[in-house]
């Protein structure tokens, strides 16, 4: 019997896949958890997802409600832990109101409520006797949170806040879970008391009756309509919300940071606002982990299919060439494979960063906050942009068949791409990084040493002076060389921006004029962090036959593919010569050759089940064509050999029996 | 009364928009045609399209059949010309079987059928008493047409071809209009006679009964399933097709180029195969025109919304900053605006190229074919890739609201992006350009002068020797400087590839090893062509107040944004210094400032109606928020205040009344 392409690929792999799975998941226990919960979901017919792309919006949404209820009953009856429950929800693999309830509503209460408030609301939320969402964005304001228009005016005569939507643009717009499901919402509104506007604060509000689910009096709430793509966020009821002078008790203001007295005096609690930043680091860490997860799924599909797909180059009855053997295919695909690994190690490091920040906050040490804030903002931005583009690239790498939903990639993209927008527009985030970089440079003069991920800027003089030392291809295979290259690129772009801004009429005008250049510098800073974290991670011991070797190859592929992709940056700053760039390209090609026999095993190591991938092209067994064909025949469109609509709209055309209308031109 | 943002924008425009519309459309008559047919479609309720994103696949498809029938009855009753009919179909703005019938089936008969065959089949096709499609691609072979597996074996005993699908991978897969509608198909199959395989030929075959539309005996035909995105190609019945030894008369072979005698002898007709290349140029010209059309629609939406959208920078009650005023926004948006114009002029030039090629072919002059073939292949590739990416970029430029289907951009992307794959995978096309470039260089030695778009390579010595002469920002505003820069970039990258390949062990190995670099060189060659055609077009007279000035600004924006985006190419070849690159960036920023007050008027000049745009964000009146809000309330999801599924799946959760299943972990 002939061996399938993928079997052959797996035989040629040079490392221990099971050991790599443990590296990817973090521990043998995590591998088991994935296996266990993954199978639970895959084997439950309620969680079927292959039919969702042919469903209309209403059917799709209703089915998501069904899945969420079913998941909740499983979680309760099996007494799953929080970690297990969250794994279960993520394997169901579609956006749902529960994401916001568990991921934003509850954390907001924890982070912004007093102990009393937590005791009041959390038990209800944990049991889901109330369901909540996070209502910040308005029709007119997303990025500019300080510009939100909803008001909450304290009325001392009744001891209540009056929450109001004064304009059309003040309508809450986008919150997930809001449109059709949530009974409660964390509402951001301008706190006004004693005639003074204290800016945006968080309130907890009931919006629907707990008896019949109707919106409460004075509340308009609805779904905002269809969103991008197949499935995707169409399983979610992103909503709109308006208040017509709705009254809520004073203590519905979440009061960890500030409260209002019975007589309307605004009183800061003394708890520093900065405490909230820990939550932001946590969210961004999760986003980076998600990026590595989504990218790894797309790459799994594209790598496996590229090994199955053959095109051109038949020689005397021998099979054609596997498209994964084309250099153009490799140079688009392998860097993405390496990036998935890079982001995983980055995510692990961000978990450490989160605990470090939390420990510092607890002892009142806010010193690392600006650096951590900038670093995590930038990492959110570059990882989500790269992942979104990477998913589409993987789809294109699958040729025509990638455009079929059967490839799994259209749904993956639709569900992922808004990550470039929510939790901060990716360009605006890079501009925040740029502000930090400019500030850091300006403080260098006064002797303030930058720390953490910005420490290298303290070394700017050397980085500006010393050019790349590479003389031959193999010289690139060196962490010190790469570290220096990425530091020099970032430092040089940053210093150049600072110089240009300094020459402008004023600081703000200069910042605005050179903001595209600043974005480039910020990207350089962030990519340096990713490269550094990947190289650092490989300094620790990692077990398993040849696992370390594969990871090193991936790490160099990641770094060198960035060097060639950002060649302009390295050249314009005079750091690299054209010759050195050619050496980098040559070395990268050698690395592709090393990676090639291990490519399929490296995606197997992500341990994604066929159910989770939801892709005929990415099947573990590589049996692509038979399954494409059989699944097509089962499509609802093929329920009968003659299509619905034939009698009304096709036969009359063919038989020249169309009724001609009386249109006028 | 306050003036709306867009009214204000239109007042500040500095040129004659009506005159620009004529430039864009090509003539006043074309402007009128657009107006006339555009309104006809917009005012006809059958052509409503705002509901298609919430429909399931079956409903969506049936509705497309309805539109196609309705359009056909209008075309007949109003006796529309071919040009009017095709405009009508394009304004209906969704892929349908008619695209293939009129765009591929009929042209294939014209191009590959003998006069007799044309007389037999064309009248039927013109009246749509038969409906046809174009069945080339198979499950296992798309790019590699020569590898198709379907066979057509001549049987002299009955004077018939026996058409057969010998394997699973030989199943026809993808042809539009095939799955549910077509009665006939142009089928590509290997012609076998006298025991010899003569390679792939085109046959015309009936696949469904003209009486009851059932597939004919021995024919399996079906839809291949759901495709990427909202709407998009889901209105199309891309299909699969298998033959179980189906017999067709000998003269169903399209015989323009070759025929088979009654006794099975294969006889080339003497008509050169090259004649078919004219059709290819025509198709690629249309693709480039489509690119400019799609990109212009996306840019219209993003420009208008960016002028309406305000975020940050409130000062004492004054409105916030229009996001179009942010430099990062401009530097992503304005180059795309310029590109839409660039592609329009390119398309016009390709129309000329098409007639030139046809005239040559008629007099047996095949000398320009290789150059034209490479040039059009490359232009198809870069314009479709840039347009697809550009649509997504426009969507992201609209922030969160761009992700709503109400922005119109998700549908635009879904319908457009397969253009990167069909009519040739974009990477494979660039590799074809690369082969031509390598060939051209290799012939230089033997004194063969390259012509047409490759003529500059005859000048390679100078282009390699002379670096950029720019000394100050304004120097960049010079067609000669730009021409030289783009020629030098392309020539240098091409020569470098040739040198690298020459050093390889053998030609093919070298070509494969350096194929990524070859793709870069090909892209440079094609971008040079676009820049050149844009600059050439502006050498002719163009009337209308300040219209020429605007076009010049756009042309420079196009060229300089490419210089900065491809900085690596220009730097690595030593052609540009870092300083000169900075000057280019500085000049580009000045151009953005010139463009800014005209941006809205420049998209108004595309003359897209609100119906055609199908975008709340891109409305002509700029009344974005009110319409987003009102449309959302009309969404089927909001038919009742309490969602379907509440009783079954939400209430039991809230009330702790879920039935717990007996799941096992
Ligand atoms: C799927 C999805 C789910 C969401 N879920 C929630 C939720 O649960 N709760 C919630 O409250 N919100 C939610 N949101 C809203 C989301 O947080 C916002 O859409 C996001 O913050 C972006 O803001 P915006 O839409 O206002 O973009 P805008 O700020 O309007 O951006 C438009 C353009 O302007 C540019 N721009 C704006 N300001 C500047 C500047 N200062 N400098 C340079 N450029 C600028 C941007 O780069 C962008 O190109 C969701 C959004 C989506 C898409
Ligand atoms: C919406 C849509 C409509 C279509 N309509 C029709 C139709 O009406 N009729 C019809 O006959 N067909 C149709 N097609 C099919 C279409 O023509 C093919 O999908 C297209 O030609 C690409 O071929 P492929 O899918 O085999 O890609 P593949 O060749 O399988 O490409 C897969 C990957 O391999 C790479 N690759 C392949 N060969 C090489 C090489 N030699 N060197 C380097 N890289 C290589 C590609 O770059 C790509 O990344 C349609 C397709 C789509 C998506
Ligand atoms: Ca300047």
Automatic annotation (TrEMBL), chains A, B:
Biological process according to GO: fatty acid beta-oxidation using acyl-CoA oxidase; lipid homeostasis; long-chain fatty acid metabolic process
Please give the InterPro entries that the UniProt record associates with this protein. Answer: ACOX_C_alpha1 (IPR055060), Acyl-CoA_ox_N (IPR029320), Acyl-CoA_Oxase/DH_mid-dom (IPR006091), Acyl-CoA_Oxase/DH_mid-dom_sf (IPR046373), Acyl-CoA_oxidase (IPR012258), Acyl-CoA_oxidase_C (IPR002655), AcylCo_DH-like_C (IPR036250), AcylCoA_DH/ox_N_sf (IPR037069)
The UniProt annotation places FAD binding at: 137, 176
List, for all copies, the residue spans of the domain called Acyl-CoA oxidase C-alpha1. 277-438
Keywords of this entry: FAD, Fatty acid metabolism, Flavoprotein, Lipid metabolism, Oxidoreductase, Peroxisome
Q: Has the keyword Oxidoreductase been applied to this entry? A: yes
The cellular location(s) given in this protein's UniProt record come to:
Peroxisome
Which family is it part of?
A: Belongs to the acyl-CoA oxidase family.
A Gene Ontology molecular-function term?
FAD binding
Query: What organism is listed for this UniProt entry?
Result: Ceratopteris richardii
Principal location: other
Q: Which residues form the Acyl-CoA oxidase/dehydrogenase middle domain?
A: 133-246
Cofactor(s) named in the record: FAD
Q: Tell me where in this chain the Acyl-coenzyme A oxidase N-terminal domain is found.
A: 16-131
Q: Which Gene3D superfamilies match?
A: Acyl-CoA dehydrogenase/oxidase, N-terminal domain, Butyryl-CoA Dehydrogenase, subunit A, domain 2, Butyryl-CoA Dehydrogenase, subunit A, domain 3
Q: Which residues form the active site?
A: 423 (proton acceptor)
Q: What is this protein called?
A: Acyl-coenzyme A oxidase
């Amino acid at each position: 019997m002939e061996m399938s392409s993928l079997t052959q690929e797996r035989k040629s792999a040079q490392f221990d896949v099971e050991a790599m799975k443990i590296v990817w998941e973090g521990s043998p226990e995590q591998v088991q958890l994935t296996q266990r919960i993954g199978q639970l979901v895959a084997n439950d017919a309620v969680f079927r997802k292959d039919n969702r792309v042919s469903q209309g919006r209403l059917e799709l949404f209703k089915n998501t409600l069904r899945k969420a209820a079913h998941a909740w009953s499983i979680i309760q009856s099996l007494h799953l832990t929080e970690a297990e429950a969250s794994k279960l929800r993520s394997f169901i693999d579609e956006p749902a109101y529960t994401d916001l309830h568990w991921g934003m509503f509850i954390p907001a209460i924890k982070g912004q409520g007093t102990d009393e408030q937590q005791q009041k609301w959390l038990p209800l939320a944990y049991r889901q006797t109330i369901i909540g969402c996070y209502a910040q964005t308005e029709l007119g304001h997303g990025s500019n949170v300080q510009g939100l228009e909803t008001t909450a005016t304290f009325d001392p005569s009744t001891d209540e806040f009056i929450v109001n939507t004064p304009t059309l643009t003040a309508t809450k717009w986008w919150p997930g879970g809001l449109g059709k499901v949530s009974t409660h919402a964390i509402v951001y509104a301008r706190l006004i008391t004693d005639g003074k506007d204290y800016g945006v604060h968080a309130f907890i509000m009931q919006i629907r009756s707990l008896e019949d689910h109707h919106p409460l009096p004075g509340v308009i709430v609805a779904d905002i309509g269809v969103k991008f793509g197949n499935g995707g966020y169409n399983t979610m009821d992103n909503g709109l919300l308006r208040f017509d002078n709705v009254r809520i008790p004073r203590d519905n203001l979440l009061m960890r940071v500030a409260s209002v007295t019975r007589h309307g005096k605004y009183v800061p609690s003394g708890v520093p606002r900065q405490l909230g930043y820990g939550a932001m680091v946590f969210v961004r860490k999760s986003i980076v982990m998600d990026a590595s997860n989504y990218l790894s799924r797309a790459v799994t599909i594209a790598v496996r299919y590229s090994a199955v797909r053959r095109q051109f180059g038949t020689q005397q009855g021998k099979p054609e060439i596997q498209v994964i053997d084309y250099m153009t295919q490799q140079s688009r695909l392998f860097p993405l494979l390496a990036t998935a690994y890079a982001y995983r190690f980055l995510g692990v490091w961000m978990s450490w960063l989160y605990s470090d920040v939390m420990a510092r906050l607890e002892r009142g040490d806010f010193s690392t906050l600006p650096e951590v804030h900038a670093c995590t903002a930038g990492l959110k931005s570059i990882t989500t942009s790269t992942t979104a583009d990477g998913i589409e690239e993987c789809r294109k790498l699958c040729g025509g068949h990638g455009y079929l939903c059967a490839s799994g990639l259209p749904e993956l993209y639709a569900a992922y791409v808004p990550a470039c927008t929510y939790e901060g527009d990716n360009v605006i985030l890079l501009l925040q990084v740029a502000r930090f970089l400019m500030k850091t440079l300006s403080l260098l003069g006064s002797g303030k040493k930058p720390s953490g991920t910005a420490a290298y800027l303290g070394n700017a003089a050397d980085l500006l002076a010393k050019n790349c030392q590479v003389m031959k291809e193999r010289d690139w295979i060196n962490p010190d060389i790469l570290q220096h290259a990425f530091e020099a690129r970032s430092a040089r772009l940053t210093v150049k921006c600072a110089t240009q801004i300094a020459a402008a009429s004023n600081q703000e005008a200069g910042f605005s004029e050179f903001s595209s250049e600043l974005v480039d510098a910020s990207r350089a800073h962030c990519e340096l962090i990713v490269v550094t974290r990947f190289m650092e991670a490989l300094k620790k011991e990692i077990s398993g036959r040849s696992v370390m070797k594969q990871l090193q190859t991936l790490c160099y592929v990641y770094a060198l593919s960035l060097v060639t992709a950002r060649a302009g940056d390295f050249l314009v700053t005079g750091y690299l010569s054209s010759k050195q760039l050619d050496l980098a390209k040559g070395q990268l090609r050698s690395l592709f050759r090393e990676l090639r026999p291990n490519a399929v095993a490296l995606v197997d190591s992500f341990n994604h089940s066929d159910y989770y991938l939801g892709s005929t092209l990415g099947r573990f067994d590589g049996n692509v064509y038979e399954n494409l064909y059989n699944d097509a025949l089962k499509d609802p469109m093929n329920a009968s050999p003659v299509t619905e609509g034939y009698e009304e709209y096709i036969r009359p055309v063919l038989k020249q029996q169309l009724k001609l209308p009386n249109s006028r031109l």
